[in-house]
Amino acid sequence: MERFIADLVKNYESGRMDRREFCQTVALAATVYAAGDAAKAQAPRGLKMIGINHISYTCPDYAKARDWYASVLGMDKTPGTDNGQRANLAFGPEPGKGGSFVVARTARPPANPRPPAQAVVDHVCYTIPNWEDGRVNAGLKATGRPFTSRSGNVNVLDPFNYPVQLANSEEENPWK
Amino acid sequence: MEGFIATKLDEFDRGKISRRHLIESLTLAATTAYATGGAKAEGPALKVALVNHISYSCPNFRQAGDWYSKVFNLDQVGLKETEVTLPFGKMGELPYNVTAKDVPVTFIIARSINRPQNPNTAGRPKPEAVIDHIGFTVADFDREHAKAELIAMGVKNVRDGGLYSLHMDDPFGYDVQISGLANNALTDK
C-alpha cells in the first residue's frame, strides 16, 4: 500500500496526475484495503466438510459384521486391514478420493476409558443408486434378517440388531 | 421379461416388426437377462454408494446442530420440533467425487433423544453393536492448523489420533474424529 501511494505521489508531483485524480485514487485504494481487511476479519471459521470418512462400529464379533456388510451391502473388504480384531469395509469413491469405510471391531475393554457420551448415533442410512424395490427387497429377504420396507426406503437390523436404513435419493435427501 | 416378449410378439403379429427384428430383439433380451442373472449370482445383490445420513440423538438437538454448524461450516435446514438437518453441501451439489445424479450429499440429522418413539421401530431388540465414533473428512486438512482452530473455537478435548487425524468431543461427549483424504480404508489400520 505504501509503495502504491508513493507512486501516486510521484505521479502527482510530476504532473502526470491532477489533484482530483490523486484524491479519488487514494480514497478508492483505502476503501478496497478496508474491504479486504473486513473480509479477512469475517472469514468463516471452521472446517470444510467433504464427507464421512469412516464409521467406527463395535460389536461382539467383527467377523460376523464384516461378512454381513460385505455380502449384503456390497462393501469391499479392504486388503491388509483385517487383523483378527477389526477390518475395514470400503464403499463409495476410491480410498483416498473421498471414499468412506466402516471399521468393524470386536469390542474389548478400552485402553483409555472415556466417560459415556450423552449422545448416540441410533442409525445410519446408506444411499443405493439405481434403486429398484424388487431388487432391494429380494436382496434383504435372502439374508433372513428382519426388515420393513416402503417404496425407496427399507429398514433392516444387522446381525447385532443395529438399525440400518437403505434409501434412494427421493426418499431421503436433506431437502425432502 | 415375459411382458417384453409378449409385446414384441404382439408387434410381430400385427406386422409392426419383421421376423428378423423379432428374433434379434428376443435374442438380445434373453442374453442380457442371462448375463445379469450371472452377475447377480457372483456379487452382492445391493451396493451402497454413500452414507445418506447419520441419525444423531442427544439431549439438546439445537445445541448439537449449532455446534456441528460452527465446527464444520454446515447449514441447518428443515428445522422441526425435535430435529434439524445439516447437509454437507448446498442444494444441487453432488457429493465429493460422486457423479451419479441419484446420490445426494450426506447429512446429519440432529435429533432430540426424548422425541416420541416411532411406532415403526417400537419393539425392536436392543442393539448389541454401537457406533462409538464417526470420522469426518475435511478439505485441506492440516493437523496443527486444525487443532489450533478447534481450540480457538472452544472445542473440548482436542487430541491427536494416529498419524493423520484429530479427535475431539462434541457438546455431549460424543467422540468426533477428523482427517483429510490421507486417512482412508487403506491407511487406517
Furnish the topology, listing elements before pairings.
The complex is a heterodimer of chains A (176) and B (189).
Chain A: H1 2-13, H2 19-41, E1 49-59, H3 62-73, E2 76-77, E3 86-91, E4 100-106, E5 120-127, H4 133-141, E6 147-150, E7 153-157, E8 163-167
Parallel strand pairs in A: 1-4, 5-8
Antiparallel strand pairs in A: 2-3, 3-4, 6-7, 7-8
Chain B: H1 2-13, H2 19-42, E1 50-58, H3 61-72, E2 83-87, E3 107-112, E4 130-138, H4 143-152, E5 156-161, E6 165-169, E7 175-179
Parallel strand pairs in B: 1-3, 4-7
Antiparallel strand pairs in B: 2-3, 5-6, 6-7
Overview of this structure, please?
- The complex is a heterodimer of chains A (176) and B (189).
- Chain A has 176 residues and is α/β, with parallel strands linked by helices.
- Chain A contains four helices and eight strands.
- In chain A, the strands form two sheets. In chain A, strands 1-4-3-2 form a four-stranded mixed beta sheet. In chain A, strands 5-8-7-6 form a four-stranded mixed beta sheet, covered by helices on one side.
- In chain A, β3 and β4 form a beta hairpin.
- The radius of gyration of chain A is 29 Å and the shape is elongated.
- By secondary structure, chain B is of the alpha/beta class.
- Helix content of chain B is 31%, strand content 24%.
- Chain B has helices at residues 2-13, 19-42, 61-72, 143-152, and strands spanning 50-58, 83-87, 107-112, 130-138, 156-161, 165-169, 175-179.
- Classes of the chains: A alpha/beta (176), B alpha/beta (189).
- At the A-B interface, β1, α3, β3, β4 and β5 of A face β1, α3, β2, β4 and α4 of B.
- β5 (120-127) of chain A pairs antiparallel with β1 of chain B, so a sheet runs across the interface.
